Input
Amino acid sequence: MPIIAIVGNKGGAGKTTLCVNLAAGISREHSIVVIDADPQGSSLQWRAIAGDNVNFPVYAPTFSLREQAKQYAVKNEYILIDCPPSVHASQTTAALEFADLALIPVQPSPVDLWATVHIEKAINEAREANPGLKAMLVINQLEARTTLSKLVREVLSEIALPIADTAIRRRAVFRNSALEGKSVFDIGKRGAEAAAELDSLIREVT
Ligand SMILES: Nc1ncnc2c1ncn2[C@@H]1O[C@H](COP(=O)(O)OP(=O)(O)O)[C@@H](O)[C@H]1O
Ligand SMILES: [Mg+2]
Output
């Protein structure tokens, strides 16, 4: 029962977008639950709109994230945790102490790239209690032709964390599908390219 914590040190990197779309993709073949540990509650809001469009639950965090995850793990193959936008938040720290994998979306923008240094530190600290913790950076909102997007892998290579081979492009369909309470897997041809990227990322993380 792999537990994947989606973490970051800034809002807007794409944690919630990755979380709900990854969950939707994984749910096609596996039982999965999402815990929305971000007080913003965006994954919960998306789930409320989604209704019958999706077949996995999104839960609010309870008093102990670890106990909650342990309980869901009895009957589910995957647990995804959408964490708050700070590595210092108690829910992020708690999730990193028992997760199998920390997935870290990063935008190709200088401010986001600078923030990843703190994430590397937080991962290393969490490994003292959770030595098996794996971590992976995922480039999100890539714009193929911009200079920054071309440089992003080079810049990120200074961080001692692996980078997913799959980068997620900036695509309007991520916003539009959320508006409809759907994932990119549920909107047919319009979501095909985004869904293919997600599938490729799912192969890397499952
Ligand atoms: N790959 C993408 N392409 C286009 N828009 C995206 C992409 N990823 C995220 N977004 C948009 O960027 C904004 C921030 O994403 P969100 O997932 O809410 O980030 P976080 O949860 O890290 O704060 C949202 O409006 C979302 O729809
Ligand atoms: Mg969010």
Remarks:
- The mean pLDDT is 96.
- The chain has eight helices and seven strands.
- Residues 15-16, 38, 40, 42 surround magnesium ion (ligand 2) (CB under 6 Å).
